[in-house]
Structure prediction request, 582 residues.
Amino acid sequence: MIEISNLTKIYGSGHQEVMALKEVSLSIRKGEIFGIIGLSGAGKSTLIRCINMLERPTQGTIMVDGQNVGSLNSLELRRLRQKIGMIFQHFNLLSSRTVFENVMFPLEIAAVPKNEAAQKVNALLELVGLTDKAQVYPEQLSGGQKQRVGIARALANDPKVLLSDEATSALDPQTTRSILGLLKDINRKLGLTIVLITHDMNVIKDACDRVAVIDDSTIVEVGDVLNIFSNPGTPTSRSFINSIVNREIPAEILQRQVIDHGLNSSRLIRVSFIGASAGEPIISSMVQKYAVAANILYGNIDQLKDIPFGNLTLELIGPVETINEALDFLRKCGLEIEVINHAGN
Amino acid sequence: MLAISGINLAAFFATYLGDYDWVPAAVLFASWETLYMVFLSTAVSYLVGMPLAIILVTSEKGHILENLQLNQVLGSIVNAVRSLPFIILLILAIPFTRWVVGTSIGTVASIVPLSLAAIPFVARLVETSLKEIDWGLIEAALSMGASNWQIISKVLLPEAMPSVVLGVAITAINLVGYSAMAGVLGGGGLGTLAYYHGYMRYQTGIMWITVIVLIVIVQGIQMLGDKAAGRIINKRR
Prediction:
């Protein structure tokens, strides 16, 4: 749906040159919720603005639904923008218009006949659950309600793509969840492709199918949210995941390794469970099958979009060969195993 | 001459004011002239100043109609006219006023220098109002595919309206003061009255009457402005 290739954006010139994006390439599929996560200043805001040309790329091309957005003239660009909805961190609703009139705004821009437009607005307000607020001005709404108006407004011209610029960053966690729920709903019902940028890994975890991690103007990792959570490939990804899932082993537990297990050796491992396997009693079958003791040190289970995902830190105690056999067994069961530490013989 | 609900005001004034029986009518007429000048010059200055302000704002760097050269040229002209003291502008404008109106004396003629002085003032005032609007709103409109004209007419102007309305009151009040100055040079209105009678003929009473009337007019304009802006703001709450 969206193909970004070799996108570079440089602000300013000469000595004040600032590289905001450096040779970024991304491919976003039709119908998916694609997240871009990065710290502030990483370039994610510039990246999402290049998709609808609110920022002009210095180099590189962006194709949206087969159209090269950089090569469009201003009229063609305005037509395309009507098909790319956008929502914002600070909602950006017009204070001079009621909720109804705010949602009507993009339809006025697209010169949709009044009757048809009014029907459309009513349907959208129903979709976002704000029918009773139609005649109210934005100032009277809560943050979550404002963002719902923003979403209704962004959907007015039946876009193919929805860009979300930190849409939940100004909202409390509960409201964030309900807005993300609405976005997932829309994504399912309308088959809309959603690109969202955020600095909050929870948003990625709750809503996204795939994620790109952006750091210092470049994409450092792209992949399925599940894969990145279970096996982050870069320090940046790891630190984002650690911000919401505790993967670090407390120092106290690492020190336990000094304990003498006599003839046995001990291994500290981390096991990641994804999807269906999270529901199976794999660890207990391992203990029954092999002569190893499993000491559970730390564990948690979480939900990635709709898929359960967990990880467990275990200390396996037993003869080295048996431990290795047990690990092979776990791998065969489809678990992701990470050996953290060896000790003993 | 003046009759309100059966009372003959002329006779009333003649009885109580003696030689000054002409004063009430003169003050009334002068007030009307002042209001007339202020109203028309405010209207003309907004007619020209608003578009100027829109161009000044939208031609800035990074804005929807970025044109730095145009922005600089217009900005310099506005600053140049604003730096002229009004009394000097009044004299400098005489040939232009004659060319437009046919004369440089009288109420209608005063509207020309008053407007000339107010246009750059209005341009800066409205420019400030327009700049208060969050760039996010413009960005949102752009993201919907709005044209530049749609952004000006559907975002910039309606969003800035309460602030612009307050600016109208400020402008009109300034023009009340300027119109008095124009009055000294034969422009008519309360200024002329105060100058010819209060100053030249030492009729201090008339001076004070004009002062009081001016205060009432200024208060009235400010009140109207506050009310109009308040009404818009309250509606949006």
Notes: The radius of gyration of chain B is 22 Å. The longest strand of chain B covers residues 3-4.
